[in-house]
Specification:
The protein has about 220 residues and is of the alpha+beta class. It has two helices and twelve strands, in the order αββββββββαββββ. The termini are far apart.
Length: about 220
């Protein structure tokens, strides 16, 4: 009798192990993607300005917006089955890491290719493969209100706008800078150093997949933020 009870117990344990194994083998698994920011890219496109685009992003001061400014991101499907990205959203991050959305952001997702066309969703990512995208948006900046003419009225390219601000002793976000020029030519080479810890916009990019899972990466204008 004891032998039969022991055999029954072993059989029950074996059945439980088989059921657990079958569950892990056949149960649905959640989507899994990794999103990596590869930094800001300069496409040389003309900027559009909106004088009042954001109520109070930093220090309670209303800010203008300029864009498009673009970042390259890479989406890697770490699973063994296709994953479908069905939605994406972008949030400006406050100093307390709270997400802010504003209508003037004009966020846009594009494939990373020469067309720069809008990426319509859903888009599939094959198993163990990656796709590269551009995230473009209009970012807040602190306007130039100097008496000798604003930088926004002098240029429509991001690098030229930065240079104009640098020559006035500050960057796009009001951080003081020190400029060293190496010749007297207007477009001559120069170097820029920040006089203190700089502040600048940071963004959260969230992708949602078909099963409702959400994945995030963060973008920043300055790489050290």
């Amino acid at each position: 009798m004891k032998h039969e009870t022991f055999n029954s117990l072993l059989g029950a344990i074996g059945l439980c192990v088989a059921l657990v194994t079958a569950w892990y083998q056949f149960a649905p698994t959640s989507d899994s993607i990794e999103i990596v920011s590869e930094g800001r890219v300069n496409l040389g496109r003309d900027l559009e300005y909106q004088p009042v685009g954001l109520g109070a992003a930093f220090d309670g001061v209303p800010m203008s917006v300029a864009g498009p400014v673009s970042w390259k991101i890479r989406v890697y499907n770490a699973s063994d089955r296709p994953v479908s990205v069905v939605a994406f959203s972008v949030f400006l991050l406050s100093e307390d890491d709270e997400g802010i959305q504003y209508s003037a952001m004009h966020e846009r997702l594009s494939p990373f290719d020469a067309s720069l066309s809008e990426q319509y969703l859903p888009v599939g990512v094959a198993p163990r493969e990656a796709k590269a995208f551009l995230v473009s948006l209009a970012m807040p900046f602190s306007r130039d209100q100097s008496a000798d003419g604003s930088c926004e009225n002098q240029t429509t390219r991001l690098r030229e706008l930065e240079r104009c601000f640098f020559l006035k002793g500050r960057d796009l976000f009001g951080n003081p800078v020190t400029v060293t020029k190496y010749d007297d030519e207007p477009e001559g080479p120069m170097s820029v150093s920040w006089d203190q810890d700089n502040k600048g916009p940071r963004f959260s990019v969230v992708f949602e997949t078909a099963d409702g899972s959400q994945f995030e990466t963060r973008l920043s204008y300055f790489p050290n933020l």
